[in-house]
UniProtKB/TrEMBL annotation, chains A, B, C, D:
Keywords per UniProt: DNA-binding, Transcription, Transcription regulation
Pfam families registered for this protein in UniProt: TetR_C_11, TetR_N
UniProt DNA-binding residue ranges: 41-60
Protein name as catalogued: TetR/AcrR family transcriptional regulator
Highest classification ranks of the organism: Bacteria, Bacillati, Actinomycetota, Actinomycetes, Streptosporangiales
Length: 205, 205, 205, 205
DNA sequence: GTTTAAGCGAGACGGTACGTCCTGTCTTAAC
DNA sequence: GTTAAGACAGGACGTACCGTCTCGCTTAAAC
């Protein structure tokens, strides 16, 4: 019987060893860093973690879920501090997204994992309900602040803005293969601020 | 010898049968449409095409290259007609990209293929040298026209604009899973026109 | 690790399932009986045995070794009872060899398997070290008995006698394609007794 | 259309090139000598012969027939001269058979070819009708001479004697893997003479 | 303290796809 | 119509990975 991690039941018997959970996730990230998502195998993760495959499948229904747990769940973006202006708020958010998708493990994981997530309805729901939802909330927060400051008249369509933020970062990293993100992030934030406020500023000079 | 289409040599012997090339690519697209990229198998393509596996591997070194040839090579965007204004040019280009990435076959192919392309240096080079390069040229064309019309003072960084065009479309389709592209495309074009011209216009009302 | 039956090590983990060993060998014999050695495929054996191909290749490095294990290893001749005279001992031994090489499975297996065994140094060594060696021991036993009885003055060269026993049976079955072995076996025994004792008897009348 | 080598037809057009026939058979023997029957491929023979595969298949229906033609047809035993006594006639015949089966090409060809011949009814008929029949005739000749000389009272069953001659040679070479044939041949002839004459002689001392 | 139930590492299991290789047929251009 | 070259359909090979299951053992809570 498979048992989700948070459920009840399993009242007797030997409890799960928390160190096993941790070493599986750590090994997953190590193997990802070494071989990339496409070439990662569960056996390699088990061997690296010093763990049996059963211990992995007791915790994660599929390889995809394992990688999902090892990467997406740690991609929790923190709420960006209020930097005082829309454009700098945007820049901070973009930096966050760039850090999330552009770190060495994510670089070799995100496209493959995304493909498998999309091919699985269950994972898609979880992906959208956690990672995307969280990101969307941050976008909303930043937009609401700008409205509050009077920088925006009204909040634009959330998904559109979301796509305009995360999409270019993804394209920059995975379609163009560029690794020089800093200038890009700054410039993107500036352009998006213009796009959304309908003209004017950009970064304060 | 592998993949000899463009090479010289092989001057004698039975020439490749062009109908085999075509039926492999057609079968690939059919199987993709039915099963998606992740569940496509070479045997299924061979059976569907009425072809031996050797005929496939004589043309395509791996399954990935086969799918690449069957999809990316047919994604050749046509040069967008001059619609008279920057914003409508942008809208036309976005519509093109949306049609390329959002048609039924692409929807079940692009994420998986992209993942495998990125994991393979050779395919990455070909992907960038053909599909991305072509797209980039179109972006350049549209920007140059706008400069010529006086709508832009100078041409912004090409890759940045490219990422701001294709990225949101990708995110909309594959991260958010949305299939209602028309309004999105119109709105995106409008916002990007603002972002790049530094304010003002948007669609003519 | 390949073929670990007799080796130490591999002390942990799930042990090999003896029923799988048995069903592979049984299925091999069934498929042999139906299709013959040349047309036997590993997939057919796996399907018939209800077993994955990996389970087969975990036990047998090649198709040849699998068939070898399924046939030669079961061809263990039993030690012939002392029948009281050289000629009847010989007849019994020849009957045994005839039964070993002439049963329905062996008839469609032996020539092809022998060819592949000879083409593989490893299998040749195993074939000689088990099947041939065992047979040779029986020949020796029968000869020694005859010496003990005074029917032979001294033991003739063992390999020569061995070849004169098994060779004609092989030729009869596989070169001449004859299936009427009983009279042949009796006559052969009689002639060989004469050849080895240097004249005289033959079967008691 | 396939066309047996000896048939008429093919009245017009370019005549077959006799050098092609010869080079195919020569190449077959060369490749056999190098790789053995089991690992011989038709492509290798074609390449070695500097010939297209079609030229081979126009002459030989299958790989087996090609090897058959290249080897068995050249194994034509010559009629043994009358050496004056049964035992020396037998020795000469055995030497012939040993030379036929024990030469370098035959050593790596006979078992595999025999296996394929047996698996094919057509080839079996040809094999028996030519090679075996011819051999059998020689056995008959030698026996008849012995009867004529008064060394034998009556001619024993031909197939039995045939099996007792060729079988041990085959076993010696291919089952026991022995390559020291001379003493073996002499001893075998002597023993068989005893077996068939019912005692007595053997080689004249 | 014993019992019990589940966890554990190891690795065998059924299944499926891969990419390679070989056979016997077919197709081209050259002769 | 034959030739050399080589593409063709078909099908088996042996490898690799997935997710499940089984072995003997360990570990903590329940009794």
């Amino acid at each position: 019987m498979r048992r989700g991690q948070g459920e009840e039941g399993a009242r007797t018997g030997r409890p799960r060893d928390g160190r096993v959970d941790a070493s599986i996730l750590a090994a997953t990230r190590e193997v990802l860093a070494e071989t990339g998502y496409v070439r990662l195998t569960v056996d390699a993760v088990a061997a690296r973690a010093g763990v049996g495959k059963a211990a992995i499948y007791r915790r994660h229904a599929t390889k995809q879920e394992m990688v999902f747990a090892a990467t997406v769940h740690t991609m929790a973006l923190e709420a960006p501090a209020d930097t005082g202006s829309f454009v700098t708020d945007l820049a901070a958010l973009i930096d966050d997204i760039l850090a999330t998708l552009g770190n060495p493990v994510a670089l070799v994981t995100v496209p493959g994992l995304l493909a498998d997530v999309i091919a699985d309805a269950d994972l898609t729901a979880r992906f959208r309900g956690t990672f995307m939802e969280r990101q969307r909330d941050l976008v909303e927060e930043v937009l609401d602040r700008a409205v509050g400051r009077g920088e925006l008249d009204e909040r634009p369509e959330l998904d559109l803005v979301h796509a305009m933020l995360v999409g270019p970062v993804f394209a920059w990293l995975f379609m163009m293969g560029r690794r020089d993100g800093d200038v890009f992030a700054r410039e993107l934030a500036s352009r998006l601020a213009v796009a959304l406020t309908g003209g004017g500023s950009g970064f304060p000079s």
